[in-house]
Every structure is written in structure tokens, then in C-alpha cells.
Design brief:
single chain, alpha+beta, Herpes Virus-1, three-stranded antiparallel beta sheet, 4 helices, 33% helix
Length: 131
């Protein structure tokens, strides 16, 4: 998932403000995309950093045991990201992979034109010809 989301593409909104301390790991300053939880202290960490620390808890828990955090339970799943293909969409984390498999940034103008056509049809139907 790292290729689909990065710290720079996250949408800064009230959800981000609420969870930012829980989704950015202070050791590597990266998004906690693949997180683990220490079963002793119940704190979550970036899996890559924990593996680099030889599976030792940064908070010095004795007999550290870690368990993967399911994506849907991860705080990052609540955040939106800007499409890095510049299609203009904001996508929830759990939908990123599917979006990028189907995203075609060349359709941006078609979507905008279609939306404009729909708007013109709506305006004409409801307000008649405007001069």
C-alpha cells in the first residue's frame, strides 16, 4: 500500500487532525500503513521499524509480542488521500488500491465535460433558456 499512499498525499482535514498522532510514526516519520500492536503495552507501531528493532518494543516492554493490525481497524483507514495521478479525486485509504487499478488521469476532462453537460441540461430543464 505504500506505493498508493504517502504523507504528502494525505488530505489534511478534521479526520487527519484527529488521528495524525496515531498514523504518523515518530521513529521513521512515515505513515503507519502496515501497523503492529505490542500485546504487552497495547501501543501501535510501524511494522518496518519494529522489524528493524529485532521485534523489540520501543517502549522497552519485556517479552515483546506483536500482532498485525487489520487495515479496517487501523486509524489510517479513516483518512483520505489525493490521487497521485492528479485525477482530482480524494480516496479513502482502504479504496486506494482499487482506485489506482482503475484510475485513468486522461479521463479528467471527460468527467468535467460530462458534469458540465449534466449541469447545462439541469439548468435548461429547470430554469429555461438564460439570456
Amino acid at each position: 500500500m505504500e506505493k498508493y499512499a504517502n504523507k504528502g498525499s494525505i488530505v489534511k482535514n478534521e479526520v487527519y487532525d484527529l488521528f495524525k498522532d496515531l498514523i504518523i510514526f515518530p521513529i521513521c516519520d512515515s505513515l503507519m500503513i502496515e501497523s503492529v500492536i505490542c500485546l504487552n503495552c497495547q501501543n501501535s507501531f510501524c511494522e518496518k521499524c519494529i522489524r528493524a528493532l529485532d521485534d523489540n518494543c520501543p517502549l522497552k516492554c519485556s517479552n515483546s509480542n506483536f500482532e498485525d493490525i487489520n487495515d479496517k481497524d487501523n486509524f489510517i483507514s479513516k483518512c483520505k488521500f489525493k490521487c497521485i495521478n492528479n485525477c482530482g479525486r480524494e480516496i479513502l485509504f482502504n479504496n486506494l488500491k482499487n482506485h489506482y487499478e482503475n484510475c485513468n488521469p486522461n479521463n479528467k476532462n471527460k468527467i468535467r465535460a460530462l458534469s458540465r453537460n449534466q449541469f447545462e441540461e439541469f439548468r435548461e430543464k429547470n430554469f429555461g433558456e438564460l439570456n
